[in-house]
Amino acid sequence: MQALGERYLRFQKALDGAPLPAALVDLAAFDRNLARLLAPVVAAGKTLRVASKSVRVPALLRRALAAKGARGVMTYCAKETLALAEDGFEDLLLAYPTVQRSDQEALVAASKRTTVSVVCDAVEQLEALSSVAGVAGVEGRVIAEVDLGFRPVGDTVHLGVRRSPLRTATDIAAFADRVARTPHLRFCGVMGYEAHIAGLGDSFAGKQIVSAARRALKVRAQREVERTRGEIATVLRARGHAIETYNGGGSGSVDWTSREPWLTEVTAGSGLLDSHLFDHYQDIRFEPAAYFALQVVRRPKAGMVTCLGGGFVASGQAGVDRLPIPALPEGCALLPLEGAGEVQTPVVLPAGVEVALGEPIFFRHAKAGELAEHFAEYHLIDGARVELAPTYRGRGWCFLG
Ligand SMILES: Cc1ncc(COP(=O)(O)O)c(C=O)c1O
Q: Which element (helix H / strand E) includes 185?
């Protein structure tokens, strides 16, 4: 029994006969991750904006926001923004643009309850927001997004996510002018998310060359990001645009983005739960806080068990790293030829470990927020106490299908 490990036994006890599959969050680990994220942000006199997409459980968002130095939520959907505003969340920044009228109406309704800012990068988005804001008699707060992709050889190589067409300080300044000229809108600031740095693991066991190459790339890309974000601040101020909000960062880059003087706030979400894509960073380590438990239902051979369910594959570029990992008992592994299956997931057990039929194996998802799409509630474990908290799905919230 000892071989199962302290955490396995603790989580097993906490679930105590709950129907499986079940999802759980270890609140002590969540709080330590929160403190780790807040430390550099607060030291730099900034605030931490919590990325809702990486959490998707209102009780956990609230827990993070109760901490000193946390302020506001980065939302991912207009209707989500309204739902959170109706729930009493404040200072909402929708980071993903939309042009749908029903979305604009939701944003305008939300902005009657709290401060709502909307990231935009195209005239169509401005016009859509302006027309609905005008009818409702509210002012739409616009944050311009700059694309921070790293393009070392012109436009042929683009390292980074494809987000905004606005790439330079001049682009952003022209866009800010355009916002200022658009009725019912106000230019409120800038968002520049360095996804290719914050989201890039750079420390892989047994892969020294790949890890070193990624670290070198990050150093170069980081210099570019700082230069671009700095230029934007200078140019906007020179043109008389106040920057109320200057948002950057993610869990994987919280330390250095916090030190960038022009940013007013840093966003993070995934680090709170520490999904397993965050296991491979040299400079930042979080503690796994979110797991899902599957029931062991078969024993195809000695040293191997099969769990019911488990095929929660993460979005993004398809690859083995998007599969969940069997985390507890420690030392378990998926079968390369089966991976995590829709209804069955076989797991190889480490030598000397037995898991009886009916008992759980605890897995970690590759991405923090997506786990919540598979469960109506999370078991929040706080020492000996366990509380059930609805996820977005449990609230009946399904924003992106
Ligand atoms: C605009 C933006 N900022 C920040 C983040 C960082 O979030 P996390 O800390 O969950 O990686 C994301 C995540 O995708 C994002 O889209």
A: strand 185-192
Q: Tell me the pLDDT of the chain averaged across its residues.
A: 94
Sign of CA dihedral 328, 334, 339, 343: negative
Atom of ligand 1 at shortest range from CA of 54: 10
**Residue 33, ligand 1, Cβ within 6 A:** no
Residue 49 pLDDT:
98
| Domain membership flag for residue 374 | yes
- Between the CA of 267 and the centroid of ligand 1 the distance, in Å, is 6
Nearest to 52 by CA among 28, 85, 22, 21: 85
Gap from CA of 152 to ligand 1 centroid (Å): 23
Please write the tens of the pLDDT for every residue from 207-232.
Answer: 888 887 788 778 788 898 999 999 99
- For residues 149 and 254, membership in a common domain is answered with yes
pLDDT value at residue 265: 98
Q: Residue 50 Cα, ligand 1 centroid: separation in angstroms?
A: 9
Q: Which residues contact 301 (CB under 8 A, 6 or more apart)?
A: none
Cβ of 277 below 6 Å from ligand 1: no
Structural domain that includes position 14 = 2-21+289-390
Confidence check: pLDDT of 161 > 80: no
Residues 103 and 249 in one domain: yes
User: What is the total count of domains within the chain?
Assistant: 2
